[in-house]
Amino acid sequence: MPIIRKQDIFPMPVSCGEFARKLLQDAGVSYTVESDKFAETASCNHKEKRIVLTYDLDSRTALALYEACHEVGHAVRGPHFFKRNRSCTVMLFALAFIPGLLCGVMRWEVPVLLLVTFSFVCMSVLFFVDIWANEIGASKYGLGRLLMLPIEEVVRKLIYRRLRYEYFVITGETLAWISAYTSAGWFLYEFGRFLRGWLLC
């Protein structure tokens, strides 16, 4: 027996595929909209100019339209800064990882290591906050467009709840990745110390 969710009781006045194409047309952006039920998450490929949704394009549920609006938001906003400048991203990560390794190999004093770690934390924060801002911006764009439709109040509340959930998840992921990359810097420092000891043996 299929599970009936609250947001499915009130069908939206337009399908997610149709609404996504209309938003793209209004924004003057040329993207194709496709459906892939086997995809884990929806996606917006800026290079191929393609939006992939996890719902059928004929779906009229609130979450289907919200997902479509969110991905259109990514298409309209474009890729985030570090994705647009991949060479800059690679250089920054190299500059962030290499000093930690050198600190271990050269046995630099702790204050130097702390300075390197602080720089690495700042770079990580900039990188992931850039991603966070892009995701939140796309969600706000999608919410604004979706609330322009005549929808039931219960669906409106569910959409707001979904947005708050996204804020929580994306913020948690951002903090987790910052912690992971910072820990990687310390790992490289310890690995550098190991290399120095191994080479001097």
Helicity range: over 70%
Helix-strand topology string: HHEEEHHHHH
Largest sheet features: 3 strands, mixed
Name the overall outline.
elongated
Alpha-beta content class: mainly alpha
Q: Count the E strands.
A: 3
The N- and C-terminal alpha carbons lie at a distance of 68 Å
Biggest sheet strand line-up: 1-3-2
The rounded Rg comes to: 22 Å
Low-confidence stretches: 1-9
Beta percentage is 5-15%
The count of helical stretches stands at 7
Number of domains: 1
Mean pLDDT: 77
Layout of helices and strands:
Blueprint: H1 6-9, H2 16-27, E1 32-35, E2 43-45, E3 50-53, H3 62-77, H4 81-84, H5 86-106, H6 110-146, H7 153-200
Parallel strand pairs: 1-3
Antiparallel strand pairs: 2-3
Helix pairs in contact: 2-3, 3-6, 5-6, 5-7, 6-7
Organism: Desulfofundulus australicus DSM 11792
Transmembrane segments: 90-108, 114-133, 167-189
Keywords: Membrane, Transmembrane, Transmembrane helix
Description:
The model is unreliable at 1-9 (pLDDT under 50). Strand 2 and strand 3 form a beta hairpin. Helix 2 (16-27) runs parallel beside helix 3 (62-77), helix 5 runs antiparallel to helix 6 (110-146) and helix 5 packs across helix 7. The termini are far apart. Strands 1-3-2 form a three-stranded mixed sheet, with helices on one face. With 201 residues, it is mostly helical. The radius of gyration is 22 Å and the shape is elongated. It is 71% helix and 5% strand. The protein has one domain (6-200).
